[in-house]
Amino acid sequence: MNEVSHALRRSRRNRVLAGVCGGLGEFFGISAFWFRLAFLLAFLPGGVPGILLYVLAWVIIPGG
């Protein structure tokens, strides 16, 4: 079997701001659109939850 281990990293190719959503999309094998939508929905009720989650992920997830 040829298994490739994918580490969670921010994307260098699929990025809009910092590559967080692109990296999550690549790691989980789904479109980054869904992560962008989730962060946008978290941003809507006052802004703080979405921004806080995104900045936290930006700091925690290493760059690719």
TrEMBL record:
Span-the-membrane segments of this chain are: 16-35, 41-61
Q: Does the keyword Chloroplast apply?
A: no
Q: Where is the Phage shock protein PspC N-terminal domain?
A: 8-62
Q: Could you tell me which InterPro entries the record lists for this protein?
A: Phageshock_PspC_N, PspC
Name of a matching Pfam family: PspC
Q: Which UniProt keywords apply?
A: Cell membrane, Membrane, Transmembrane, Transmembrane helix
Q: Give the bilayer topology.
A: Single-pass membrane protein
Gene Ontology cellular-component terms listed: plasma membrane
Q: Where in the cell is it found?
A: Cell membrane
* Protein name as annotated: Phage shock protein PspC N-terminal domain-containing protein
Q: Which organism is it from?
A: Levilinea saccharolytica
